[in-house]
Design goal:
The chain is an alpha+beta fold and 167 residues long. The chain has one domain: Aminopeptidase. It is 27% helix and 35% strand. A seven-stranded mixed β-sheet has the order 1-2-3-4-5-7-6, sandwiched between helices. Strand 3 and strand 4 form a beta hairpin. The structure holds coenzyme A. The site of coenzyme A has 22 residues, from strand 4, helix 3 and helix 4.
């Protein structure tokens, strides 16, 4: 049987804007919907104070998602990327990853790094299909319920040759 073609992604209906303090309540609200162990509003405020590159993805005035990116010397580190549950599976994360990769390459970064929970198979698959490779594991990196911890998979995307991977 032939696969059902997915609808074309139409980024022209969307905009990316800097994440400012005015967005933090809404961002923290989506964060609680999307994660069992969400960042607090204070975590985002700290990121803004630290000067991290943080953006919100908007459809008109509606907040669909966001990312937080930390710049290093010759690399960037994606600290958070989230799409509100109602809007997942439509290509928004891929769109934000494109923006993250292009911005990072523009800053002279050669690599984009991220960590993802071992159990987050959906996100791991999206990153792999985007071009990230699994480089290693950080033991007990994330909190879990009942004082347990979960490993993180460390993933890397080289930016030298590929900032716009095929769809
Ligand atoms: C992980 C997460 C960011 C992914 O966001 P998303 O917007 O659902 O991801 P996308 O829609 O870009 O990709 C999901 C799938 O939809 C597909 N898709 C559907 N319609 C599409 C379209 N029109 N254009 C492009 N891709 C489309 C993508 O190809 C992808 O499928 P694949 O995995 O088979 O390649 C989101 O699920 C999320 O916020 N989860 C909770 C928080 C989280 O886990 N964050 C990551 C922490 S490391």
């Amino acid at each position: 049987m032939n696969a059902v073609p997915r609808p074309a992604y139409r980024p022209e209906a969307l905009s990316l804007a800097p994440m400012t303090a005015a967005w933090l309540n809404e961002v923290a609200h989506i964060e609680k919907l999307a994660y069992a162990h969400p960042w607090s509003s204070g975590n985002f405020a700290d990121s803004l104070r630290a000067g991290y590159h943080a953006c919100v993805l908007l459809q008109r005035e509606q907040l669909l998602g966001y990312f937080v990116l930390m710049k290093g010397l010759d690399e960037t580190h994606l600290l958070n990327i989230t799409v509100t549950p109602d809007a997942q599976g439509q290509g928004h994360a891929r769109h934000m990853l494109n923006e993250v990769a292009i911005w990072s390459a523009g800053q002279g970064a050669q690599w984009l790094w991220l960590e993802v929970r071992v159990s987050n198979t959906r996100a791991r698959r999206i990153y792999e299909r985007y071009g990230f490779k699994e480089m290693g594991v950080r033991r007990n990196y994330y909190p879990l319920a009942a004082f347990k911890r979960e490993d993180a998979v460390v993933m890397n995307l080289p930016l030298g040759t590929t900032t716009s991977p095929p769809p």
